[in-house]
Design goal:
Blueprint (H helix, E strand, L loop, with lengths): L5 E12 L2 E13 L4 E6 L5 H8 L7 E6 L2 E2 L5 H11 E4 L11 H11 L4 H14 L15 H13 L5 E5 L7 H16 L3 E5 L3 H4 L4 E6 L2 E7 L20 H21 L1 H37 L5 E6 L16 H8 L4 E16 L2 E10 L3 H5 L3 E4 L4 H5 L4 E4 L1 H8 L10 E4 L2 E9 L13 E5 H9 L6 E6 L5 H16 L4 E5 H44 L1 H9 L4 H37 L9 H27 L3 H6 L2
Parallel strand pairs: 3-8, 3-9, 6-7, 7-8, 13-18, 15-17
Antiparallel strand pairs: 1-2, 1-4, 4-5, 9-10, 11-19, 11-20, 12-13, 12-16, 12-19, 14-17, 15-18, 16-17
Helix pairs in contact: 3-4, 3-5, 5-6, 8-18, 9-16, 9-18, 16-18, 16-19, 18-19
The chain binds adenosine-5'-diphosphate (ADP) and magnesium ion.
């Protein structure tokens, strides 16, 4: 006799059932030679399925030794058991256990994917097997388009694709009509004649009679083991040469299978996949656009501020910012400006006054804000000259009627004039003034609103419009070597002394910049916190759906394990699905954010929302990372399912 392919020595398998233990197999010894055809019979509960699960390496004995082709199973880990199943066994189930989402041909190919056989070879083998089993034209059909008999033939083809020396069949004809059952048995006998070992569990005495050896179980023990007169096998089947599936082509094939299954699963539940994605889409879109908007507005505000010039402070009448009675406080006067000008730490003083009047030029008329300023005002405020020149200290001293107009005024009156108005005389109320310069429009600074503004020497405005009345403000340029805060304190002391009360407020550009920077930092932090929360919520959505997906597909997982999928294959399949859902969601979210940015850029002039390749890449990586992080737990749960438990789930 040759060495047995299957050898059980004193095997015991017990199950915990509440407080007691159920012994399903007891002191069980059995050896089966290569090429035998064995029927296992016995009443329900006698241990047939338990035996078959142990033989197929889906389950392990509690004690005792099981050797497959000489290898002791108890020494093997989960992946090595999966390899044994791939290399030696082919399973045929009572309920066929085909995957409903795949075509018949794809079902047949599946074990070959896990064995690392390349796609062309796989397809050839699958087609040849389907042809041989009489279901060749049905390869492209789904299982639910096939009759029971056809499905069972497809499942036999699946069992054979890796060459299976040993076919394990649990009630293979149990769900079939008589004729289909006979055909399946005929196929099994044929496989037996080729030299394969066939082990059939059955209730049916007629089925059992087809075998050359019948083993009867009762209460987990063998009560009869007899041979029939049926002719034996010619020669045991030769072991096929195995591809371990460990090479990179094998790994690639398995990754492709995992991706295909992920797509199939998503296609089968489109709405669900979309709703899951929606969490990620909204999260990524919101985070990306809020971050981009925040950056754009910070850029804008800071550039507005830097156009205000540096190291300046401006004194306004009023007890506080926004003081409603500030207009009634008339104590800020020219003498204050002169007193401040005498201080060593002050580099320049510009009193400002203002009034509104009408401006007329050749029959056109409009309202205008007339600003009386000193010659250094433009420098301190960071105004840029577009055309002509600014007025100088002499013009201020001599109360000259020289006007500098802003860009709005130029557009209103001199849009078609080659001179831009330089040299022209405009009437401000009843006062004619000659235009000497035009200042450029600046973001957030000069001419950024719709109002017209004209700048005259403050002496002229006081002489012609307001009289020697209160100032609108005093603008001070601080010497570079003095700190703004120190200067501010000195100015406060001086003016408080002069007024006997503190009836003015001081605006310091440094303070504004600091406030805005710290405000935007706080905002950025808040946005980041919201971002993390929304992405975690999106991730939990992914995890939730993946858990549902796993529990819906437990029997699929069982089938895959039975045909030899490794734990890593199952893990990969669900991880790929989670990652695909969240990275597709991420791409959609990025697209929405970019479109939103374009829309804002078009709708709000002067606002520049932009996305760097870095931020897009970061958003994409984040969404992918969420898929991996939140998909891992469900995927691991699937991978560590017990094959027997998974298979028995319906
Ligand atoms: P058969 O297939 O011959 O009907 P089984 O092998 O399914 O018998 O079961 C044999 C015995 O083991 C039965 O008493 C059954 O209740 C018990 N059994 C099988 N599987 C489990 C399990 N997972 N947990 C507890 N008891 C089990
Ligand atoms: Mg059973």
């Amino acid at each position: 006799m040759t060495n047995p392919i299957i050898d059980l020595q004193n095997v015991r398998r017990e199950f915990a059932a509440g407080d007691t233990t159920v012994v399903a197999l007891d002191d069980f010894s059995l050896s089966i030679q290569p090429g035998e055809m064995v029927a296992i019979i016995g009443q329900s509960g006698s241990g047939k399925s338990t035996l078959l699960n142990i033989l197929g390496c889906l389950d392990r004995p509690t004690s005792g030794a099981y050797r497959v082709a000489g290898r002791n199973v108890s020494e093997l880990d989960a992946d090595a058991l999966a390899a044994l199943r791939r290399e030696h066994f082919g399973f045929i189930f009572q309920r066929y256990n085909l995957l409903g989402d795949l075509t018949a041909a794809a079902n047949v190919e599946m074990p070959a994917v896990y064995a690392g056989i390349n796609a062309r070879e796989r397809r050839m083998r699958a087609n040849a097997l389907l042809e041989r089993l009489g279901v060749g034209p049905r390869g492209g059909h789904r299982p639910n388009q096939l009759s029971g008999g056809q499905q069972q033939r497809v499942s036999i083809a699946r069992a054979l694709i890796n060459g299976a020396e040993v076919i394990l069949a649990d009630e293979p004809t149990g769900a079939l009509d008589r004729r289909s059952g006979e055909e399946v048995l005929k196929i099994l006998r044929e496989l037996h004649r080729e030299g394969r070992t066939i082990i059939i569990v059955t209730h049916d005495a007629d089925v059992a009679a087809q075998a050359e050896r019948i083993i009867e179980l009762r209460d987990g023990r063998i009560v009869a083991d007899r041979r029939t007169e049926t002719a034996g096998a010619s020669e045991p089947v030769a072991r096929t040469a195995w591809d371990s599936g460990a090479g990179w082509t094998g790994a690639l094939g398995r990754l492709r299978e995992a991706s295909r299954m992920a797509l199939v699963a998503m296609a089968a539940h489109r709405l669900r996949a979309f709703l899951t994605m929606l969490g990620i889409i909204i999260g990524i879109a919101a985070v990306s656009s809020v971050v981009a908007l925040g950056n754009a507005s910070q850029r804008k505000v800071l550039s507005d501020i830097s156009s205000l010039g540096t190291n300046t402070i401006e004194v306004f009448p009023g007890k506080d910012f926004g003081d409603a009675r500030a207009g009634k406080i008339k104590t800020l006067v020219l003498d204050d400006a002169r007193a401040l000008d005498r201080q060593g730490f002050i580099a320049g003083v510009t009193p400002t006054v203002s009034t509104s009047t009408t401006v007329r030029y050749r029959g056109n008329e409009s309202n205008v804000l007339v600003n009386g300023v000193g010659e250094s005002y433009f420098l301190v405020k960071g105004a840029k000259l577009a055309k002509g020149r600014l007025f100088d200290a002499d013009a201020v001293r001599n109360i000259e009627r020289q006007a500098v107009i802003d860009d709005n005024t130029r557009k209103t009156f001199f849009a078609d004039d080659q001179t831009s108005g330089i040299g022209r005389v405009i009437w401000l109320g009843k006062v004619p003034c000659r235009i000497v310069g035009v200042i450029a429009q600046q973001q957030g600074g000069f001419g950024s609103n719709q109002n017209l503004a004209v700048y005259l020497p403050y002496t002229t405005v006081q002489a012609q419009f307001t009289g020697d009345r209160a100032l609108r403000s005093i603008l001070l340029r601080i010497s570079d070597e003095i700190s703004t805060n120190l200067a501010q304190d000195a100015v406060t002391t001086l003016l408080t002394q002069r007024h006997n009360t503190r009836d003015f407020v001081i605006l310091n550009t440094d303070d504004i910049r600091r406030t805005i920077t710290s405000t935007t930092q706080t905002l950025a932090f808040l946005v980041a916190a919201i971002a993390v929360i929304s992405l975690v919520v999106g991730g939990i959505g992914v995890m939730n759906i993946m858990l549902v997906s796993v529990s819906e597909r437990i029997s699929e997982i069982g089938v895959r394990m039975a045909v030899g999928a490794r734990r890593s294959d199952i893990l990969q399949q669900f991880l790929v699905e989670a990652t695909l859902i969240s990275s597709i969601g991420g791409i959609a979210g990025i697209l929405i954010a970019v479109l939103l940015g374009v829309a804002i850029n078009v709708a709000v002039p002067g606002f520049q929302v932009s996305y760097s390749a870095f931020s897009i890449g970061a958003a994409f990586l984040t969404s992918t990372g969420i898929g991996i992080a939140f998909g891992f737990f469900p995927a691991r749960r699937a991978a560590f399912l017990d094959p027997v438990v998974a298979l028995s789930r319906d």
